[in-house]
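Is SN-glycerol-1-phosphate placement plausible here? Inputs below.
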Amino acid sequence: MNLYSKFTSKNKKLALLIDPDKTSAVDAGKIAKKASENGFHFIFVGGSIVTEPIDELVKNIKLSCNIPVILFPGSPLQLSPKADGLLLLSLISGRNPEYLIGHHVNAAPIIKKYKLVTIPTGYILINGGKVSSTEYMSNTKAIPVSKIDIIKSTALAGEMLGLKLIYLEAGSGANNSVSEEIIKEVKKTVSIPVIVGGGICNTKQLTAIFNAGADVVVIGTAIENDKTLIKKFAKALKAE
Ligand code: 1GP
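Reply from A.M.:
I modeled the complex. Tokens:
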């Protein structure tokens, strides 16, 4: 089965995000194992700032679990040939050319050399109630939650440009996760899978986000803070 088809399958999917700057390579392996055993579908690896090479961490994760390990890079420095693939993010909510095409130009030859499977992804930053690292680092503005028409048009333009996934991002550790209304409207607008992440910290939110139509939900900070949530989120997923 190719990597993209794991995103297009009908079932609801959970991704654990591991930030290499906040989790050691050894711990990453342990957490990934637990997530995989409990029914998570993907391990995403990435962060806004990563100060160490990520090869060792990715290798440990790969050795510990049998679900795809997918790079979710904040910069072209966060690439590893040991991963199964890469979300090639275009920050289409922003107007910073470096995050639309610039970094991609620098990364493309390396991605090719590493033979990484890429999934072009429209990354849409939505206001999560505080300035996110993504907003600050990319020097772009998050779309206000009230501007649903702009969010929908942005997602639609991404699909028309040939992007294969839409990622609705409230920002890591957001005060407010992406609203059910926004998810429902985007789902009505595009036919490609929709990933939702940022600020999801309990099973009630997870269930509401799945019910609104999210195909994949990404959880990072909440599990970094409380590993017992892996089991709780997995149980909520199984109830879907
Ligand atoms: C961040 O969407 C991801 O890019 C996950 O966010 O860390 O808030 O779970 P959290």
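Short version: Residues 17, 169, 172-174, 197-200, 218-222 surround SN-glycerol-1-phosphate (CB under 6 Å).
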